[in-house]
Amino acid sequence: MIPVTRQEVLGLYRQIFRIAKKWQSASGQIEETIKEKEYIKNEAKTLFRKNKNVTDPKLIKQCIEECEARIEIGLHYNIPYPRPIHLPPMGLAHKQGRTLRHQEKLRKISKPIYLKSHDEVS
């Protein structure tokens, strides 16, 4: 990892923990606030540890962009959890074949950047 990228990643990690420290749930209830703070911390630890051995610069950049997007969305909507996406169901495709593979490929491509690692961890 080049030094600038390392500093950027460590800065994001610290920023997430500062956000978690100041976090207030949308409902204002203490129990929910505590639960959401723990979620933010655990999610950050899990994803950063999972990606600590990544060496490909493009993949590192993608992880940084995902992190920044999740921070912005979380702060904007005041929810720490990833926002769900609404893609059409794959009910029209056959159980096998080119159509199914094509629909799976389209679903993977259309997945927003802030959800790239969410399914892998949850």
Automatic annotation (TrEMBL):
One of its GO terms (cellular component) is mitochondrion. It comes from the Eukaryota. Signal peptide: none annotated. Residues 7-71 form the Complex 1 LYR protein domain. It holds the Pfam family Complex1_LYR. InterPro entries: Complex1_LYR_dom (IPR008011), Complex1_LYR_LYRM1 (IPR045294), LYRM1 (IPR040330). Coiled coil: none annotated. Belongs to the complex I LYR family. This is LYR motif-containing protein 1. It comes from Gavia stellata.
